[in-house]
Amino acid sequence: xxxxxxxxxxxxxxxxxxxxxxxxxxxxxxxxxxxxxxxxxxxxxxxxxxxxxxxxxxxxxxxxxxxxxxxxxxxxxxxxxxxxxxxxxxxxxxxxxxxxxxxxxxxxxxxxxxxxxxxxxxxxxxxxxxxxxxxxxxxxxxxxxxxxxxxxxxxxxxxxxxxxxxxxxxxxxxxxxxx
Length: 179
Known about the structure:
Layout: H1 37-155, E1 157-159, E2 166-168
Antiparallel strand pairs: 1-2
């Protein structure tokens, strides 16, 4: 917009007729509607106020649009942050689930190993008990047979009436021959 030092204007003001009657010069009323100086001032003030109001309205609209853009940007940032937090939380959940499954798997493997160890120890203990039982039964059987043999020997012995010594009869396979 160009700026000028002088503004030339001819407002529609009403003024008293000048010159003679024959002269129609200065009778603006005859050519267009005129206004009093007060009306012109008011109109100029109204136009200035209207321009100021329009300028304020334009600025307010620009500010509103800027504010809406900022809000949209903030919403976009908030949504992006929310999405980032959601992905982070999901990754944390996945990591936590993997850790839980690893621990669960380790616990299961430890339990299986423990159960296997207990089963092996139980089988070893049962085998040892069986062997000991068989050995004890064999020993008991040997002792029983020895007692029977000794009982048979004692049964076949004769006691001397004078000295009360016991003697085995001759030809006895279980005992010794006496003289």
